[in-house]
Structures are given as C-alpha cells and as structure tokens.
Design brief:
The structure is a homotetramer of 315-residue chains. By secondary structure, chain A is of the alpha/beta class. Chain A has one domain: Roll (2,3-Dihydroxybiphenyl 1,2-Dioxygenase, domain 1). In chain A, 18% of the residues lie in helices and 35% in strands. Chain A starts with 7 loop residues before the first strand and ends in a 6-residue tail after the last helix. Chains A, B, C, D: Keywords: Dioxygenase, Oxidoreductase, Repeat. Chains A, B, C, D: Pfam families: Glyoxalase (PF00903). Chains A, B, C, D: One of its GO terms (molecular function) is ferrous iron binding. Chains A, B, C, D: This is Catechol 2,3-dioxygenase.
C-alpha cells in the first residue's frame, strides 16, 4: 500500500484580478475585514487577521476578472523538490518564478483546464506593526473591530470543463486526497473536493457549463462561528453587496456558507466548518449521486441558478 | 533541515477508569451525548456522533479512576513500523498488544511519567445500524437529539512531574510538534501542548504539583459552536454535574472551554476552537511566561485552584 | 389623544387540529421539544419549558387540520370585562365558555374571517413535578435535554380573505397595535402584524390567495438564540420532517426563522427575534410596498411559493 | 383586586458623568459601538443603532463620575399626568424641567436614596441622516460595522443603602412590578429587580455596602445574541478595557452578561436575555435566599468582590 503524501502543507494564497480595483479593495478591506500588508505594482496584498503569512489574497488590477494563480506552501524544501520532480514528470510544469513580496521562489504549473498553480516553501511571516499587536501572542494580528473579520483563508473553487481529468491530476500534482465528489447519472464528475491536510477541502472544482476554460468560481475565508456569518449577511445588506445565496448549510462537506459577489464580480464565500476535520488517513471518498444533489443543500435550499453559470472572467 | 514527521494521523482513543461505572456511563451517554458502540469485559466503548472509528472512549470499571492508556492511529502501516522502531530505540517500548473491539494490533510504550500510550494502524470503522444512519452521508452517525452532542474526540491533558522531559519525549516518540508552552520564571516547564496534525493540540501536559506520577487531568470532546458550550452548561446545571470552571476562553490556544467532573471524578472538557488551525509546517512554539499566565484566562478569569490539584486517580 | 389599551396581556394558547394525532404528538414532543401537561377528551395539552401557564398548545384529534381557536389572557378581571363589553358592542361575540384544563371562564368571539378567539383571565399555572423542577427557580420547568427546546409560545399567523378588515378589527377587539403591514400596489393589504405588548407581534394575518375562510398559516415557538434554529434544522433533517423554508431572516419584523410542516400538515415555525422589542408607546406602523416585498427576505431568499398557498385545513 | 399600572412605557435614558470625557466618549463610540446624535453644553448624546429615541445615554463631562439622572417615558400624556400626581402625593417630587435635546418637559423626583429620576412623554425620534439609513426600514439606523453594536438600551443598576425602602417606592412611583429579589437571612433586602413592561427588568437596586448614598452601579445595553458578547470580550481585551467579570449567565433573571469599566470608572454591561420575557400580568416575585446566592452565578462563577464595592462616584 502506498503511503499518503504529506509534501504540501496548505493553500497559501490566491491572486484575483479586478477591473474595478478601488471598489474591490474597499470591499475586501472595509466590508470583508481583510488587512493590507503591502503593495507592489498593480497588486495589493491582503490577509485575514490570523493568517500567518504576509498575504493570502493578492488583488491585482487588470482589464478583466478571475484568478491569475493559486499558491500552495510545501511542508519542507525537500518536499518541494519532490513535488517539482513529480510535476515535471507529468509534463505540465511552467518553471520557477522568483516569488513576490510574500514568498520566495515558486514552481509554477498548470492544471488540465489551464489554471496556474505555484508551490513554494520559503515564505514571509506577517509581523504586526505595534498598533496591530494582538493581546494574545498566539495570534498573528489584532482582531479588526469590524463585524466581518475572518480568521484565515479557507479554500477556493475553480471551474473546469473536465472534472474527471482534474480528479486524476490534483492528487498526483499536490498529493491531495479526494474527500467528496459528485458523480452524475451519465458518469461524468460534476464536482470534486480535494485536501492536502486535515481540512475537509482546500480546493474544489465544479463543471463549467459554459465550456470556457480556466475560470474561477470563488474564494472562501473562514470565520469562527456560524453566527458570524449571520451577522455578515446584515453587513453585506447594509453595504449594498450582492448576496447570491445563503446563509445555509451545504450537504457536501456540511459547511455553513454565504456567497456574495465583490464589486468586480468575483464570487467570495464566508464559511464555517464547525469542528469537522478529516482525520482518517485512509478517508474514503464520499460520492454523491445526481438524485441526492437534486435535494438541494442540507436543509433543502435549492442551488441558485447563477451558481452554475456565474464565474470569472465572464464566459 | 529535518523534515517534519507525518507518521501519526491523530489521537484515536482514551481508556478511562471509573469506580462508579453505572453513573459514569449514564453521564457519558445521557448527559454528554456519546453513543455506545460495544461492550467487552469491564469496558464500554463510546464515541461521538462524527468519530469515524468504533470508539474514542473506552470506559472501564476498576477500583480506581484515571487513564489506563491513550491510543494514536498511524498514517500507514509503514509509518507505524517507523514509529515502533524509533520508540524501541528510545528504550521505552512495552511491546505489542492484540488490540481490542475497536482496532487491530497496537504497540505500547510509556512516557517518562509512566502514562501508557499505544499506536496502531488497523482500525474498525463505525458502521451505523439503520436507525443511526445519518441524513447526510458524509457523517458517521445521526446527530443525537440531545442538547450536548459533541462531534468528535479532541484532545487529552495529562499531569507529569517533569514536563520538560515530556517536551523532549513526545516529539521523538510521535513526531509531534510543540505548539505552545509555559516556561516559569525558574526555567521549569509548566505546561506543554503537542500536535501531530493541523489541530492546535491533541495532548497537553501540565505539571503535577502533588508529585504523583502517571495521573490524568482531562479528556476533551469538540462541539461545533461556542453557543453549544453555553447550552451544555445549562444541561450540566440541570443534571447536578459539578461544573469546575467556565465557560470561558483560554489564553493558551484560545479554545473556548467548559470543565466538569464526571461522577467518578475524572475531569471532562467540552471545547470549541473556532476556525483556528496550525497550518504552518514550521510553526514556531509560542512560549508564555509566568507573568503572562498570572493574568488568568483570555478574558481575565482566574484559573481555579482545583485545576492545579485535582487529577485522577487522587494523589 | 386616546390612550393605548393595556387590557390584554399576551397570547395564551392555540388549539390545533390534527387528523394524525399520534404522529403529530410525537412531532411536538420528541422532535419539537414541548412537554405534555395533561389530556382531556381528544386533546393533549402541551407547553414549552418556560411557558408559565398549564399549556400553550392544545392538540386535538379531529377529522381535519387547522386551528380551532386561539386564546389571549387579559391583564386583570376588570380588563377582561372591558374587552367583553367592547367585543359585544362590535357584534361578533360568541358568549362564554367554562374554559378547560388550562384556564377558567373564557369569552369567545370570531374575527371577520371566521377564526375563533377567546379571552380569559383566570389561568392555571404550570407546577412542575419533582423531576421537572428547574435548577433555577425563576424558570417554569427544567430545560428538556433535546436539541430543540423552545422557551415559549411566540405568535401565530392566520390567513384571511380581507386583511384590511382584520386590520380594523383586531385593534378594536384586543387593543392591539399594528406594528408592520404590507400594502400592495392596488391598495389591498397583503399582511398585517399585531401586538398587545412589547413583542413585535403576537398574531399576523396574511391574505389567503385561495379565497377560503378561517384558515391557519402557522404557530411559532421562540428559542433563545439564532444558533438554536440552525441546530433545529439538523434535527428536522435527521427526523424526516418537511422543511419548507429557512433558516433565514425576515425583512418584516427581522425575525430569524425556520418553517416546517408537522406530520398532519400544520405549519410550525421556530423563531428568534434577538433583542428587538416594541418599546415605543406610539410606535408608527411600518408599511412595506409590493416592490419592497419582491426583494424577498432580508438577505434575499425568495419567498417560497407554498408559503402563499399552503394553509390548514387544505383549501 | 387592583389593576396593574401601565403608565410608564420604558426606560428612556441615563445621564452619566465622566471626569475623562474624551476617553469615555471614545470608549462608548469606537469600542462599545454607540452613535453620537448630538451635543449640548458639556454633554454628548449617544444611542444604540435600534434605539428609536434621539438618545439613550447622555454623557456629561463633570468633576466626578456616577449618574446624574435617569429618564423614563410615559405611555401617554394622561399617564404622565397620573404619575406626576401620584409622585407629588408621595412627597418626593422635584418639579418640572424643560427637557433637553432629546425630549420635552420632564417631571423630576428622587428615590429614597437620592437618585434623580425624570418622566416625560414628548420625545424626539431619531431620524437617520442619509448615510445612516438602514437597509430594512423597520430599524432606526444602520447596523454599525463594529464588532460591538448593541441594539438598544436595556437597564440600569443603582446602589442604595436601604433596598427594602426602594422596593416599596419604585412600584408606587412608576407602577413597576418586582420581578425578582434577594432577601438575606437577617431579613434585609440585598437586591431588587423592577420592570414597567415585558422586559424582565429595567432597573435593579443592590445594597451599597459602603453606606454611601445615590451611587450608580452600571448601565446595560442589549445585544441580539450571546455569541455577540463573546466577541465583545475579545474587543475589550484588544482595546485594554478592564473586564471585571464574565461572560457568564446570571442566576437572577438568567441574563448572559459581561461587565467592564469605561475609562472614567463607570461600570457598563452588555447583556442578552434570550427569548425570556415577563408576560404574566400577575407575575409572582421570585425570592432568592442568602444560601442560594452563595452558589454564585448560574454556572457557578463566584460573584467578584469588586461587584459589591465598586460604584460611581467612588465612596
């Protein structure tokens, strides 16, 4: 029996593109409660209050929207080298980059749908300035005095034309496990959830009904309690943010969720997973059927139509 | 640089002794919301609704109280073999046991304070009978219709005369990381928190002021939300359970907690960690000073005196 | 300026009919967490743990479903006499009844849509048997050890063909205030919320699109926290209860809600109003337009179609 | 049987004195989440986001701390006249004032311990400027985007040398009911809770152990959920606010509470009462004995010593 792979530690950051940079930045900081830790070129580096790295969201002004790349941090330099070797052997490597404000050298590759990933080990820890020193030293930064103040980056969701191909690819590239999936009646894979650690997922893929390639579905930040998501809904309402669906509980992965669109159209989720973790080293993939998915979310909410069609950039 | 060790997947179970077996069982099932999955000899096997294994608590009738052993599950057979070799080399091995109702062969060893550990890979997954089948298939069992219904085993806390020795021992034996510790003004280690995975800790050790060896401090089950702990406090109150301290938030590890004593005197905690996880593969141990600890818990609650003296069995 | 009327203290009880008495009783006790305080004839008397009266729900076996009557308690014998005189003058009185297990003499009348009301002063306080004595003496009964354990009866909702007529009637009969209302573009009243005390409403009326008369929409029990409603949703899911809509927050009255159907088809709501109260003695009715209502609930959930059509008995 | 009195609608406002006006104002706005609605002379007028009146807290710079006066709103002009007549007959009247920025003419009187009360009917409703217009029109103001954002003023607590005298006085003056009280073994009244409406209390008195007269114990704002109080504790911690005790649940009145001291030393509470209301028009006073009170708060927290000694101004 092959041993599980522990080469990748966690999802590190997502680079999002926005064609409304000022409004997007206002949303992510004033409304969503992220903090700015730096700027470089067209990009602003953002993080949640307990993200230990310099940034988990790189917001980049661009002529369009969507995701430019996603970064994962390796568990050690040796682990990084093993992954690079494996990925090069898979033939999808793009080579090394020098990194940026937030981390050191990163090896880039693309998934079968064209999304760009990078893996790195050397990182820059966030060091709070005096006014951001937290009262409790086991926390990266003070809790912002805003209703919405997510603790950390949680996961992202990408669209792909062939999710079955992705299901083969991601475990090979990152050493991820497939924790849950949706297999439709015609045998195609409707969605797939992956994790490299004890979180129930760090990336999910769902089928892009439009046939477009390389699109982005959403990025998710985690809050500590479900009640915080209910409070967040009021803040979104008061600030004129488009609430797409929720709050409700997903049947898949059981996450309590709320989806909104930031001003440029990128979808953002707040989520709480309760105490649910994937601890079993031999976790058996949970497979949902088409019939089961038609029941809607956990408590019966029907999946909103735009959830299947809206991605960024627009198709 | 040495790579981190990923040989142990998670804390598996704790065997607690009780000299009031009927009352203890009533507490753990009717009040604390655990379910019985089997019995053998003097032991009843219990679990929380989303524990994937057959049991996480083995409750054994005995002339005394305290912990008989704690079990950890390895990430693979190969990983188990590596740990056994390492532990044998450390000279603290006790040899193999056949396992019990809940798991296969286990290798036993003792820590420097005399607590017995076992590590195993082969396990028995809980298979719910029809009336316990959950509505959502990604969950081990139905949610019990009780106010207190913890999701899973979280961690345990042991007392030791020499916590510094333990701080050296546990990472070597299990591959754990030290996430937080208390170092007193005289240089002695007052407490130490360890993890083998992304949880902030799965075992903690604190100094036994009585000088006794091998004693048990508490076992903790995790609930999904802090509000569930507030509700639990009412249930304990209505059922005449001794509430020792809480609900409040720990400064160390920031866990929201509530401590009670089950009828035989073993301490039990309910806890919620919010979305806090240890994701950094190179997490830097947080060290609390004596002065910092004298501030009490996060919001100022003073540590109750019995917390330093009450362990099982009585000293 | 006329003074406000304080003759009616609060909503007292609702008598619901069920053609599936065993299943309905199982739902209201085992699932919804009400307690039985007595039986008489075809009726079982039920209450929430902090309802101070003998019952707040009278569940009566019958060939059909719906509401047989609703009871309000007066603030004094004198106040009761004033209301009776006023109602008799309005020409809708039905005369006195002897009361039942739960209260003394009651004066009955009907609203313009044919629903039967009664008002009474003499009541029977719930006296807990020893095993139901609460730990805190300022509470009527122990908190049941069930996930769903509402604190008290909150309000009911009735269907009516002419809500404008109701809007005139209820304040005259009970001394209620109209706290909120929906006025459609054609000038008809789509819904109306009334209160006799500081609660934001104790009865609401909405238009019966079917043209039937005297129908029942739902009865609501209040829980202490919004999180309790999220937990309740899981219990309903695990027990196969039809969840109609929610959890979500109403725009009207801002109540956090969850609607289910009990086995016989009567709609039941769990709700939490937070700290919202109507304290102003001269509260100004809030009027919602058709356009505003088309935005859906507070966070955008569209009102489910069955909410407009499903009432009991079936039309 | 005398009818209950409904002449007073609700607690209206509290005027607090501070000898650190800038720091106190910063606390009440930036930390506690109140909004400023006006200034006059040495006073700043503050309110919670769903307080319907112009102000509920009048913060006045002064050489000392404590409460200058408390205001209650009558249910009608006629009711106000009845109360004034009753109070004048009691011999404790102080005469009419012209009111201030927030309300019209008020009749002033003092309680037996020297605290100054006023009652008024004419009030000034808060009218939000455009940027404070709430998304939901049944709310006074937008929810502030701060972690702590109480919904409304809840109650106050005053110290008195002779609480038994107060217990006689308040119902006569305001028409209040005594919902709970503490009667010590020597027959003296240790504490007394009063309400004029369905809230479980709007003013409480506890014995001033120092023998001083006319002192202030605390003012309380209500938040919607208990979880909001847990979040508030973190904000107080991060902002260096002195947390005196809590969060915990009171045995008396069952309120979930958190006490802090604002910079000038006045005690402030955040509280949540869940769905608990006093609906019975003939509520029977709950009397706690000395023995019962020695058990501490609901879940066992001992009452902190400063709670018995710290009042403002200092004794």
């Amino acid at each position: 029996m092959d041993e599980p792979i522990f080469d990748i530690a966690h999802l590190g950051h997502v680079e999002l593109l926005t064609d409304k940079p000022d409004e997007s930045l206002d949303f992510f900081t004033r409304v969503l409660g992220l903090s700015e830790s730096g700027r470089e070129g067209e990009s602003v580096f953002l993080r949640a209050f307990d993200d230990y790295e310099f940034h988990t969201l790189k917001l980049t002004a661009a002529p369009t929207t969507g995701m430019r790349h996603v970064g994962y941090r390796a568990t050690s330099p040796q682990a990084l080298a093993r992954r690079v070797a494996a990925i090069e052997a898979m033939g999808c490597g793009l080579g090394w980059s020098d990194g940026d404000l937030g981390h050191g050298p990163a090896y880039r590759f693309h998934d079968p749908d064209g999304h760009v990933f990078e893996i790195y080990y050397e990182t820059r820890r966030y060091v709070p300035p005096p006014e951001e020193k937290p009262a409790l030293k086991n926390q990266a930064q003070r809790v912002p005095n805003r209703v919405i103040a997510p603790r950390r980056l949680d996961h992202l969701n990408l669209l792909a034309t062939d999710v079955a191909a992705i299901r083969d690819f991601v475990p090979k590239a990152l050493g991820s496990r497939v924790t849950e999936q949706i297999v439709l009646d015609d045998g195609t894979v409707g969605g797939c959830w992956f994790t490299v650690n004890n979180k129930s997922y760090d990336v999910a893929y769902t089928r892009d009904a439009t046939g477009a390639r390389g699109r982005f579905h959403h990025v998710t930040y985690a809050v500590d309690q479900r009640e915080h998501i209910l409070q967040a809904a009021d803040v979104f309402l008061e600030n004129g943010v488009h609430i797409e669906t929720g709050p409700h509980k997903h049947a898949v992965q059981q996450t309590f969720f709320l989806y909104v669109w930031e001003p440029a159209g990128n979808r953002v989720e707040l989520a709480n997973a309760g105490a649910r973790l994937i601890l079993a080293p031999d976790w058996q993939t949970v497979t949902w059927t088409q019939t089961e998915r038609m029941k809607g979310q956990a408590w019966g909410l029907k999946t909103i139509e735009s959830f299947h069609t809206h991605g960024t950039p627009p198709a």
